[in-house]
Amino acid sequence: MQEIKITEADAGQRLNKFLNRYLDKAPSAFVYKMLRKKNIKINNGRAAGNELLCAGDTVQIYMADNTISEFRKDGRVPVKGDGQPAGDSGVMTALNKAGVSTPSNPLEGIEILYEDEDVLILNKPVGILSQKAERGDYSLNERIVDYYRLKHMDNPLFTPSVCNRLDRNTSGIILAGMSLKGSQVLSLMLKERTLDKYYLTVVTGRVEGFGTIKGFLAKKAAHHQVVIYKTLEQAKTAGVDKPAFIETEYEPISYGRLEKTEFTLLKVKLVTGKTHQIRAHMQSIGHPVVGDGKYGLKSVNGLLKREFGLKNQLLHAYSITFPIGQDRLPERLLGREIKAELPEQFAEIQRRLFGDISDLISGEKK
Hints:
By secondary structure, this protein is an alpha+beta fold.
């Protein structure tokens, strides 16, 4: 028998949702069957599955440890029968199983911009995946999970996760929910677009004046790219069933030139947030992001590679502003703007092409 003590991180969700996360390899029908047969109880009493969990509740699972491990994707039993953490406290990841040890500091080299018990905000470097693409990847999401478990060995059950994604070679702000409450409120704000998200990017050519780009996006799975259609009718004519509406705002900050090529430093607001949105949208208006191997210009990318050694797109999620009046947010985040400094190479190229614009991205570090 396993007894699980519910902590604040897991409170506020229905029992069946919690069980589906805990026994994440088991079909929902199996979980309900165990509830009906009284093999799963709450506070030593009968459970229907719709109970709202509170901190301090206990959940009893009358199954053998090896049975529980078979119904978990990671194959572990996170807690012992007395409710205490198991020997590895949940720190072991798929990398451990492959013979690779978990680092003592999973977030080493990654700047923490903000942290409390519900929310973690990081400045993701170029070259790190937000979420793993293949089984053996050690993405930022896995790093956050290991970081959480090293700090919270008394609660190996909750699994934090990133709430927004950045491409591997896009740097900047990543949001992660470190509790159920934090995950829910961040996901809701992203869905309802109440967060103001700004990027800095360098594009080819001279972009004049503030602008808004709207369109419909469809994925080209075979090429890991997306296609932008100006109208819904165009998308349907092309045979796209359910294209995603996208909207991007941009504002030129400064202009520069290298040899015969002109560049614009743009401040971009991501109104919607879809795969490759900024990169594909800027290409669609004839101003592709510099260094972008999928949507950029080979000649321009080659010029920047020769001059600066650039091997990735210059796209950085540099600022996010939280709304006022969100009662589930930590008070310290209400109306607060958090900024992420540019990567060193991006900052150097910006200085060489555009001069000193530090007043745009400086300010008190959050």
